[in-house]
Amino acid sequence: MKHYRSCNLCEAICxxxxxxxxxxxxxxRGDRQDPFSRGHICPKAVALKDIYEDPAxxxxxxxxxxxxxxxxxxxxxAFDEIDARLGPxxxxxGNHTVGVYLGxxxxxxxxxxxxxxxxxxxxxxxxxxxxxxxxxxxxxxAAHYMFGHGMLLPVPDIDRTGHMLIMGANxxxxxxxxxxxxxxxxxxxxxxxxxxxxxxxxxRKTETAGLADEHHFIRPGSDIWxxxxxxxxxxxxxxxxxxRLSGFIANRNRLESVIDFMTxxxxxxxxxxxxxxxxxxxxxxxxxxxxxxxxxxxxxxxAHGGLCQWLINALNIVTGNFDQPGGAMFSLPAVDVIRGxxxxxxxxxxxxxxxxxxxxxxxxxxxxxxxxILHSGEGKIRALITSAxxxxxxxxxxxxxxxxxxxxxxxxxxxxYINETTRxxxxxxxxxxxxxxxxxxxxxxxxxxxxxxxYSPQLFRPQSGSRHDWQILRELTRRLEKHHGxxxxxxxxxxxxxxxxxxxxxxxxxxxxxLGPYGVWRSRSGFFSGLTLRKLKKAVHGIDLxxxxxxxPAALLTPDRKIDIAPAILANRLQKVLAPPDSxxxxxxxxxxxxxxxxxRSNNSWMHNSARLMKGKNRCTVMxxxxxAARLTLSDGQTVAVRSRTxxxxxxxxxxxxxxxxxxxIPHGYGHDRANTNIPVAEACPGASINDITDERLxxxxxxxxxxxxxxxxxxxxxxxx
Length: 722
Ligand SMILES: Nc1nc2c(c(=O)[nH]1)N[C@H]1C(S)=C(S)[C@@H](COP(=O)(O)OP(=O)(O)OC[C@H]3O[C@@H](n4cnc5c(=O)[nH]c(N)nc54)[C@H](O)[C@@H]3O)O[C@H]1N2
Ligand SMILES: Nc1nc2c(c(=O)[nH]1)N[C@H]1C(S)=C(S)[C@@H](COP(=O)(O)OP(=O)(O)OC[C@H]3O[C@@H](n4cnc5c(=O)[nH]c(N)nc54)[C@H](O)[C@@H]3O)O[C@H]1N2
Ligand code: SF4
Ligand SMILES: [Mo]
What we know:
Elements: E1 2-6, E2 15-21, E3 24-30, H1 43-53, E4 62-64, E5 70-72, H2 75-93, E6 98-102, H3 110-123, E7 128-130, H4 137-147, E8 155-156, E9 163-167, H5 171-174, H6 184-193, E10 197-201, E11 214-216, H7 223-236, E12 249-250, H8 252-259, H9 264-271, H10 275-287, E13 291-295, H11 297-300, H12 305-318, E14 328-329, E15 347-351, E16 358-360, H13 369-374, E17 383-387, H14 391-394, H15 398-406, E18 410-414, E19 427-429, E20 439-440, E21 450-453, E22 455-456, H16 469-484, H17 490-502, H18 505-515, E23 520-523, E24 526-529, H19 533-538, E25 543-547, E26 563-564, H20 568-578, E27 592-595, H21 611-614, E28 622-625, H22 626-631, E29 639-643, E30 648-656, E31 663-665, H23 681-684, E32 711-717
Helix pairs in contact: 3-16, 4-12, 7-9, 7-10, 7-12, 8-20, 9-10
């Protein structure tokens, strides 16, 4: 039998063709008939079978025993215990005493996406933290102030561009992020086949460098100077060509004046890229017929992440490569999550307890989570709920996070494994996952480089007694509302409850499609139904709704319906940042600058228990330039200690010429040597967690996002083990 669905492991949403018999997966291949992915997959897709069959995956709730072990309990007992533990804490200390952390697979599950909102509302806490603030928060921040909504995210029109400037992204390994486009290597090669050019800016010569025409090393964390330098050249040489956009751009002069003194020579000093090269990069970009600048993780997880994402948008706008084919464009997804409502005003309404970091659109920076649990004053977090996240391995200062978790009065995790985070929970509720779920990509269809839609049906029924994430969330919500729910006439409350209990993600999707831009429409002769869930279900390979089309100014949600090309909050910050550093600012000459790395056969902190993905040589190494290794007399494979303010980790050196001297790279998501998990991987590839040495105090001050890139660390040969 054949089954068709999209892979929901990463943002590329590749179409899969799965051959199965009974409850056994025979093969997983790329679906050649998927109009978007056309057969492309990566090795991780095949591991969906491993997740499905994994004996270590939890199927029933587990409760920690007094001895620190785990015992399976019934769902009813688990929910009762959650009530019994959370209730008194919330009554005594208020709703905000419960903290929540939502991790990355949340956005890859439409069950979680459609049912989390009601759950969080019922919890009524302000202490909501997500993986967004160790990832793409700067993109939302820039979009919010420039376009009026944090989700108005421009996507590079990779299939029609003639020149792509990639900064701090490695789609060659990550398969693309905030740019859903399955088959990155084919799409990047196609730019060059069309006679175009791909330029990469990265402190490491990555897999993507192999697909680019030009690669420039850059000093980690200095991209803001390159972007400002490029804009300087464009204004100075009168290469500005915003075209039709000029009718709806506000604050253009403010932008020019704020970058006015940032000459290419000054940019060269900060970035390590020659001034002549900066001039050349800027001029080629501005004079190419269709160009697009795209910056991702390397840019958003640095001290100036918010400024970088802003200036990338600004660069695309002033050169006329915005809302135009081949430039950065807005999708028109079949389910519109924005629905014409601005997010402006939803920032800084409350602050984290200990450090006073501001919320953004309901989210507090996760760099402040552990300290708010350990906090002794007002606003302390006493209970924590994690869902689909592994913050011990994925957020800065993991050791402090562990300590904080151990101090909690109660911790609940919704997760499919006992891992480095969930082992601290009192209870773990495991949802059905992967092949056992139906799915629609609410977010990645929105970030796609074509307008596409695809519904993935459930392949296997969850094991008996297992529940979907949305069923878990719905039950948690029902119980919270029962005890502390909204007031109102009993009759209305009863109706609302029944309505909520009858909802499912598929019903929400059906409604979203009907209300969406391809849904029910009206003409003089009546209503017509366009794209319905039924039609979507019939199109098993997915539906192509066409290339991205210009949407501005109509889609803008700023009060004046203009692009704010230099919002005051960003321009003021840039002015401060570009000012020459005082002597105290100078970096320690012995320190290395730390950057991260991803590998195509690894997925953040999990899936390391898939033998097929983990085979081969150890990937959890410190990459270091040959000249640095020679200076420190280190040999390839030698174990070194890497130290920072927050801790020390030990791992082998991998000597290479593919990294900038003075920079080292360590992948994240390892460190499986913590005791008491049920993941057999621990023996196979424990590795070490980079986030034991990343510092939660180093953030992008503007947005609150973790500033992983460019953190200073020291290296020394590790003393021999005793
Ligand atoms: N130093 C450094 N740190 C980083 C990064 C970096 O580049 N460098 N990258 C950052 C980025 S971009 C991200 S997105 C974060 C990720 O950070 P997190 O989201 O905190 O971590 P993940 O590793 O994605 O953890 C996913 C968790 O979800 C569980 N899970 C898997 N499937 C399901 C499911 O269907 N339902 C539920 N409930 N749980 C499930 C897994 O068992 C695992 O515990 O890490 C960030 N941390
Ligand atoms: N195989 C695989 N695919 C994944 C994931 C995974 O774990 N494994 N994770 C998924 C997730 S959650 C995300 S968010 C995406 C991320 O997708 P990407 O952003 O494409 O992935 P990264 O590999 O983090 O790429 C960041 C690049 O920035 C570079 N860099 C670091 N610091 C700097 C800097 O200061 N300046 C510049 N210019 N460059 C810098 C790094 O060397 C690296 O090559 O990938 C997704 N896809
Ligand atoms: S690239 Fe991403 S979506 Fe495509 S098969 Fe691999 S993990 Fe799945
Ligand atoms: Mo991410």
